[in-house]
Amino acid sequence: MINNEDFLDEIGDNHFSSNAQNPLRADAFDITDEEKIEKIKKDVENILQTLGMDLTDDSIKGTPNRVAKMFVKEIFGGLNPAKQPKASTFDNNYKYGEMLVEKNITVYSTCEHHLLPIIGRAHVAYISSGRVIGLSKMNRIVEYYAKRPQVQERLTMQIVQELQKALGTEDVACVIDAKHLCVNSRGIKDIESSTVTSEFGGKFKDPQTKREFLDYIKLDTQF
């Protein structure tokens, strides 16, 4: 009989996700950000005290509040739908019908299994079916979905799905190449490896179009 705790550890150590959406409770936003900060602050204080840290020391006494604000306002701010960027689109008046690629978008996310950083680059492309989106909005969409406890596969899919919805086309692709500090700094401690994930929609499923995109971002990985 498999111990449930061992089973859950195995999921986390192997970086599997049990949910294609971020697993949020229905009451996730019943309290304010300020109330969340106060609750998390007390939890961080308890963790540090349990570890034996002296919270009267000037260097660490402000850490619980800093961590709580960082969680709510920064690295997990993408959980709040109120912070979702407005994906404004415009008519493709100049009739540009080729692939548009925004590459090397910085990704800072957090592994939901160990709450350690995921750091890498996202490469996003689309082919207009009549609408175009501002370049900075593509970066903001990546940032919004990255700022939550994540698995890289889910993040890749969410970026594509959001752009498909905004642009009204299936012709969207995303590749993410990132390092996971839960792999690099603990467990196997492999500092060289990175993880590459991809999601190809519409015309990007065609091998020639897919290859053109991968050539643009100079990625030799075969999909």
TrEMBL record:
Residues 40-217 form the GTP cyclohydrolase I domain. Pathway: Cofactor biosynthesis; 7,8-dihydroneopterin triphosphate biosynthesis; 7,8-dihydroneopterin triphosphate from GTP: step 1/1. Keywords: GTP-binding, Hydrolase, Metal-binding, Nucleotide-binding, One-carbon metabolism, Zinc. Zn(2+) binds at C111, H114, C182. Belongs to the GTP cyclohydrolase I family. Homopolymer. This is GTP cyclohydrolase 1. It comes from Flavobacterium calami. The gene is folE.
